[in-house]
Amino acid sequence: MSKIKIFALGGLGENGKNMYCIEVDNKIFILDAGLKYPTLELFGIDSIIPDFTYLEKNKSRIEGIFLSHGHEDHIGAVPKLLKIINVPIYGSYFTLAILKDTMVDQGLVLDNYKFFTVSGKDTLTFGNVKIDFYRVTHSIPESLGIAITTMDGVIVYAPDFTFDQNVTGVYKTDFEKLSYISGKKILALLVESLGAERVGYTHSTESLDYAINQAFYQAKSRIIVSAFSTDLVRIQKIIDIALKYERKIAIIGRKTQRTVDIAVKLNYLKIPEDKLISLRFIDDKNKNELQDAVVLVTGDRHEPFYMLQRMVKKLDRLIHINKEDTIILLTPPVPGTEKIAARTLDILYRYDTNVVKIDKKILPPSHASSEDIKLLINILNPKYIMPVIGEYRHQYALEHLCVQLGYNKDDLFVFDNGNVLEMINGKVVNITNKIDSGDILVDGILDGDLNDVVLRDRELLAQDGVLLIIANIDARKKEVITVPEIVSRGFIFMKENEELIKEVEDIFYKVSSEILKSKYIDWRVFREALKNGISKHLYKVTKRRPIIIPVLIDTQTT
Question: Which of 1, 23, 79, 506 is found 20 to 30 A from 73 (Cα to Cα)?
Answer without folding.
Answer: 23
